[in-house]
Amino acid sequence: MRFILKAKKLNGAFSLVRLKRDDKSWLLIKGKDKYARPLIEYDVLEAKPNSVLSKLTMEKIAAKYGDKAGKKPVKKRSTGKSLKKSLN
Asked: Phi and psi of 58, rounded to 5°?
């Protein structure tokens, strides 16, 4: 499925692809357009870490809701800053 988002954090073309026949396994892929930027240049989780709706960080959301969803809390991924350090 392909679509265009015009939102506070995500803009431009995206594709949503099911990874398995399981309805819970999906991959969101950013399309190559004028809004696409490499992680080393711009990391939305670093630039705008809080949820638009709850104003909470991903860590606080995971701590609050992670177990209720039957999943472990979300692990923090590497950021653009850590990627820049590892490349230097």
From this structure: -60, -35
